[in-house]
Amino acid sequence: MSARQTRTISVGSVSIGGESPIALQSMAATRTQDVPATLRQVKILEQAGADLIRIAVDHKKDLEALKQIREQTESNLVVDLQENFQLAEDVGPYVQKFRYNPGHLHHRDRDHSIEQKVAWLAETAEKHDCAIRVGVNCGSIDPKMLERYPDDDEAALVASAVEHCNFLDKIGFTRFVVSLKDSDPNKVIAVNKRFAAERPDVPLHLGVTEAGMPPDGIIKTRVAFEQLLSRNIGDTVRVSLTVPFDDKGQEIDVAREIITDINEGRFRSVPVFEQKGLNIISCPSCSRVENEKFVELAQDVRELTRYAKEHNVTIAVMGCRVNGPGETDDADLGMWCAPTVVNLKKGEELIGTFGYDEILPRVKIELDQIIAEQ
Length: 374
Fold this sequence. Notes:
The chain has twelve helices and 15 strands. The chain is an alpha/beta fold.
């Protein structure tokens, strides 16, 4: 690959963009407040060669845990603020980068405009020597952009990202990267190409969100990365796989293998990924997962539904309340997992809540009905 055209920014000890090597990222899957378990995840990812390790901080109870983790690792840490952007001031002293989602800023502090909130985030990042990721996600697009582009969610994603780049440009903050993610690799390819054409100067973080379990999750990710990195689009990557917690290092291994293959001219994908038959998407697990049985449930759903492999049905298995409700809307059947129950949806309609020992039979009933209707 020839040199990329994006500017170079620093994130702790790592440089992202320009002629820098593509940086590898992953995320601790354990509950942040379980400090020993989260440190074990950090060590697994360090040993795998992660350049950046993301940790979720959802509320102030996680802050003390983050402080303890910071004291015991020299890794470049990233915090995903999700719906709690006000925590940026609290996490800033302990991390090298934080990520905010443009689609979540309207939920809180309604007395200030979105532009004012972005300015505050940039000022906070500057104060603590942090970089920022503007993370736009298919399941939580800014409602304003959805209204502006009601029939084109790709345009809504790109427009949201460009708008926030403009906000940051206006105040002179340049240490930011952008990500535009979807569970469909074709959409990931399309929106990142569109964004790169508009803002070739901005470093891009690539990833297929909720790619699912190996091997399918690896295939979807490879398709997106091969089509984008070969066009010099992408400066840092995250492979998102649903795997047992002790196997999280596999995400780094897979990312490195894909990048090596691209650099050496070995391509295994096709220009357009055609999803035919049963499609199971599942999130990669993170510290917001409220029951570790979520990973086992995703594996059980895959086994249960093998008989339907020829049918064009999408089933989503999501591990938390943050992404679960919104990112199951486009699935024929969607599950988002709470501590003791699983919420089952059919499209945007909530069918009901079921215990972990009750959900599989109901999934089969609903799946058989969808097949019959087809």
